[in-house]
Structures are given as C-alpha cells and as structure tokens.
Amino acid sequence: MDEEGIHKEDNEKHYEDVVSHCVEIYFDSVDDVKKFYKEYTIRSGFGTRIRTSRKDDDNQLCYFKLVCSREGKCVSSIPPEMKTLPTQRKQCPARITVVRREDKWMISSVVHEHNHDVSPSKSRLIRGNRKLNMQAKRTLDIKDETGVRIHKSFRSLVCDAGGFENLHFVERDTRNYIGQQRRPLGKEGDIQALLNHFSSMRELNKDFFFEIDVDADNRIINIFWADGRSRAACANFGDIVSFDTTYLTNKYDMPFAPFVGVKHHGQSILLGCGHLCAEDTCTFVWLFQSWLRCRENKAPQGIVTDQCKAMQNAIEIIFPNPLLHKHHFL
User: Concatenated DSSP letters for 212-235?
Assistant: First the structure.
C-alpha cells in the first residue's frame, strides 16, 4: 500500500475511534448529533438517513436510529431484468442509535462495519451530503435575475471551483434551488400575460381548461392547460398516453410536460400539457390530478413514461388501474 493509502486508512480509523468514544457522551440537541455523525459519514464515504424513530407518551421524540443509506432490502414490483440500474440497498449494518436522557441526547450504540465499498472522495455527491453554499446561491440568484440559463450558471460555478471534483452539489441541486426562488404571481409581465391569455381562451371556448398551482406566498409553481381540441381527443385517443418531462423550453427553466396520444393514422396528438417547478412526487401528483379532472375523471388504460421514480410514485397514487403500475418505459 502506498503512503497516501496508508494515510487515508489511518484517517478513517481515527474518525471511527472518535465516533466510538462518543458512545454514552451527551449532546445538547438532535441537530448536534446529526451534524456530528454527518461529518463522520462524509469523511468515511457513505450517506445516512433516519431508519427508525419513536415518541414518548407526551408525543416528544425520545429515540431514533441513523443508518447507512444502503441499509435495508429493496422490494420492487419491477422485474430485475427490466431495471437499467441495480438497487443500491445492500442491507448494510452500519448505524448509530440515539436516545434521549432528560434534556440531552446520547449515542447508545455504534456499528462501523459496511458490507459494501465506500468512497470518501465521492461522498460529497451522495444525496444526503450535497449542499449549496451561500456563495453558490448568491451567484445563481444574480444570474437568474439577468436571464442566464441554469445549465450555464452551473458551468460557471464549476469553473469558479476549479472543476466538478471541488463542488459539493450537482446541476439538479441548482435547478431545485432556482425552482424554490420562484417569482411572485403577477409580478412579472409575462405571468400576467399568461393569465390574461388563459382568461381570453376560456371566453372564446368554454371547453378550454387550465389550472394554476401557487404556494403560500402566492407564487406560481405549476401550470396545466388543455384546449377544447385536446379534451375532445382525450375521449377518442386517450387510452394509451405517452408522458415525458425532458423538455426545457421557457426562460424560467420550468420543465415542459406534455401528455401525448396517438391517432388512428399513427400521428401524435396533444392531450394536455403543463409547466412544472420541480420533478418530484408531489408535483407529479398535482399534475396528474389536474389532467384527470380535465378528462372528467376518466383514467387512461396505460401511460408510457421514462424511468423517473417520482413519476412512478405519482401514477400509483392517482390512477387506481393496476395495469398502469406496470410502468411501461420510453
């Protein structure tokens, strides 16, 4: 083993000893325990999550267990031969157990051993370890205000950091952050123009359907619309639908989400579409609910999608047809 490898091994052993010596040592808060263990996991090369927690008779947290992110066994209805990526769950035993003692928190037990390889050099990119710093957030805010595309802003952050290996986040994190900094409803001229256009379309055609989702601060987060032609096509060609969100077509970098059917001549036809602030389960649930109301609650027989887990979860929540849960992929 070379000198660098020996040094790395000694460093990892040092942090294992530090965590081991903290058994029965008290912390002031849950956040202090999590911060302490997260620093250890980043240096050791794995991610972590809460596996189990318990509350007392007063409904106050009194116990929780932090485990390796690869703990557990994956149970999926998708056949293994249809998966493009193997499951990351390896039933890893690494964990710590934390209990409350009066107003303090104590690590009662520690398991260090993993049954898989760990990668300290890449642990910063594990989902639970990724974080945007204040400088990156400020840069993204400034560039977004000036109309710079998110992927270009991300590339500038990569250049400023001296390469991807020096960043503690990925491009998806920058997109999620900008999505959270949405402009207030009606503040921008084009937002008001959109509302005026939808209103005029409704006056011209009573079958025009649209829904706008706003957050607690009255800011637009999701939009769905379908004209009279699309709603009529749903009744005739909406049994099998293709749904995809790989388009980014507006200056706000909101993914474009079209519902597409196929006519009897083999031609594609639009059955409705939307702009989304994010690609998570809650957002897809809202979109599918809006589309289902547009279809007068008549669910399709099948939906062809990509292998987005959040999309699959939303389909299982909104559509009761078991055939839809087979997840036919694009």
Answer: EEE-TTSBEEEEEEE-HHHHHHHH
